Amino acid sequence: MDYTITALPGDGIGPEVVAEAIKVLHAVGARYGHTFTIREALIGGIAIDQTGTALPEATVAACQDCDAVLLGAVGGPKWDDPNAKVRPEQGLLGIRKALGLYANLRPVTLHPLLLDASPLRPERLVDVDLLVVRELTGGIYFGEKRREQDAQGEWASDLCVYTQAEVERIVRLAAGLARQRHGHLTLVDKANVLETSRLWRSIATRIMREEFSDLQYDWMLVDACAMHLLRRPSDFDVIVTENMFGDILTDEASMLAGSMGMLPSASLGSGKMGLYEPIHGSAPDIAGQGKANPLATILSTALLLRYSLGLEQEARAVEAAVSAVLEAGIVTGDIARGEQRAHSTVEVGSAVASRI
C-alpha cells in the first residue's frame, strides 16, 4: 500500500526526532511492503521566520491532502514574547482546528527497565498503564480573549466555553476506548466551582448511564486527580477531561515514565485523519547536539500506523522494536542509568529501525 505522510518538523529538536521517526517508517515499509511518501511543510517559529505566519496556507493544504500528519515541536526563546501577535503555538492550535481534531490521546505505559528513571518510587509504578483523553478544540484556549485598561488599571479575561456537542463526542470517544481496555473511565472536572464543568458532569453522567452502563466510571476533581496520579497511578485506566486540565495533567503524567522523551500522542477527529507528535517541547537547549530522545516521536508513528492507517501489526512491530532497544540499553542521556552509555539521537533511531 502507498501512503502519504505530511511531516511538520517544526523548531528546536523537532527536525532531529522527526527524521528518526521517518527512518523507522521507511523500515516498516520495507518490512511489510508499504511505501510512505513523506512531504515536509512549515509550522511554528520557522514558519514565522520564513512566511510571517505560524501556519502557512500551504501547510494546511498539505495536511488536508494526506493520510496522516507527523509533528515534531514548535517554539523556542526566539519567539517567546507573550505579547507578540504571531506566536509558534498558534500554528499548533490552528492545524488542529483546520483538521477537525478534537481528541488528544496520550498513553502512559512504563517499561520495567525505566522504573528507576521516574522521580516516583518504583513500587508505585508497577502496572501503570493509563490513557489520558484531552478535549482539544474548546475551552479557555479558544475562548474570547480581552485585555484592556480602565481607571483601576489593566485587566484581562479569557472566556471558557463548551457546547453540548463538544462534550458528548469526547466522552463517547473516551468511553469507547475504555471499553476496549480495562473498562474503567475517570471523568475529571472542577464542578464545585466552574459552570462549564457542571455542564460536562451532567452531560457525561447521562451518556454513561444510557450508553455505557457496562463500564465502571467515577468523577474526580482536577486537583484531586493531580494528587492521585502521583499517589496511585496504577489505579487509572482512561481519564477524560477538558482542554486546559488535560494539558496540565498529561505533562504531570509524563513524569511517571521518567522523561517526556518517552511519551507519544495522537490527535484525532471523526475520520481517519490524525496528527501525531511527542508530548515534549522543542528543547532548544539541546537542539542540534544529538541528545534528543527520539523514542516518543517513534512511538507516535506507532499510533499513526494504528489509528490513521489501520496497520495494527506494523504498529506493534514499532513498539516491540522500541522495547528491544530499551532492553539493549541503547538510550539517550535522559533515561541512561548507571553504567549505560548515552547514545545519540541518530544511534537510537537507527537501532529501532534495524529491529523492525
UniProtKB/TrEMBL annotation:
Swiss-Prot/TrEMBL site (Important for catalysis) positions: Y141, K190
SMART domains in the record: Iso_dh
EC code(s) of this entry: 1.1.1.85
Residue numbers binding Mg(2+): D223, D247, D251
Single Gene Ontology MF annotation: magnesium ion binding
Binding residues annotated for substrate, in chain numbering: R96, R106, R134, D223
A cellular component term, taken from the record's GO annotations: cytosol
Any Pfam family: Iso_dh
Residues that hold NAD(+) according to the record: 76-89, 281-293
Isopropylmalate dehydrogenase-like domain segment(s): 4-352
Cofactor note (record): Binds 1 Mg(2+) or Mn(2+) ion per subunit.
Involved pathway(s): Amino-acid biosynthesis; L-leucine biosynthesis; L-leucine from 3-methyl-2-oxobutanoate: step 3/4
Organism superkingdom: Bacteria
Single GO biological process annotation from the record: L-leucine biosynthetic process
Keyword set, alphabetical order: Amino-acid biosynthesis, Branched-chain amino acid biosynthesis, Cytoplasm, Leucine biosynthesis, Magnesium, Manganese, Metal-binding, NAD, Oxidoreductase
HAMAP family: LeuB_type1
Family per record: Belongs to the isocitrate and isopropylmalate dehydrogenases family. LeuB type 1 subfamily.
Quaternary structure annotation from Swiss-Prot or TrEMBL: Homodimer.
Record's function text: Catalyzes the oxidation of 3-carboxy-2-hydroxy-4-methylpentanoate (3-isopropylmalate) to 3-carboxy-4-methyl-2-oxopentanoate. The product decarboxylates to 4-methyl-2 oxopentanoate.
Name of this protein: 3-isopropylmalate dehydrogenase
Species assigned in the record: Oscillochloris trichoides DG-6
Gene name tied to this protein: leuB
